């Protein structure tokens, strides 16, 4: 443990941020997984809503630096590609 007051505060701050980032990243993964599962059910409307929610969450995470912007764009693109294939079949 650090002895200097500012270093102690920095450790506390880092712990809080790490916990918050882990929570937000977990929520992001949950939303993306839900969108992916909605695509497998062949219900276009629910899949569209799920993908819209996932896209919003991905954009917000990328803007905050939680995930890289290219990673967010890649995930959004893959979800959109699956949705397009689903709507083409329906």
UniProtKB/TrEMBL annotation:
Residues 1-22 are annotated as: Disordered. Keywords: Coiled coil, Ribonucleoprotein, Ribosomal protein, RNA-binding, rRNA-binding. InterPro entries: Ribosomal_bS20 (IPR002583), Ribosomal_bS20_sf (IPR036510). Gene3D superfamilies: Ribosomal protein S20 (1.20.58.110). Residues 44-89 form a coiled coil. Transmembrane segments: none annotated. It comes from the Bacteria. GO terms for cellular component: ribosome. Binds directly to 16S ribosomal RNA. PANTHER family: 30S RIBOSOMAL PROTEIN S20, SMALL RIBOSOMAL SUBUNIT PROTEIN BS20C. Belongs to the bacterial ribosomal protein bS20 family. This is Small ribosomal subunit protein bS20. It comes from Paenibacillus provencensis. The lineage of its organism: Bacteria, Bacillati, Bacillota, Bacilli, Bacillales.
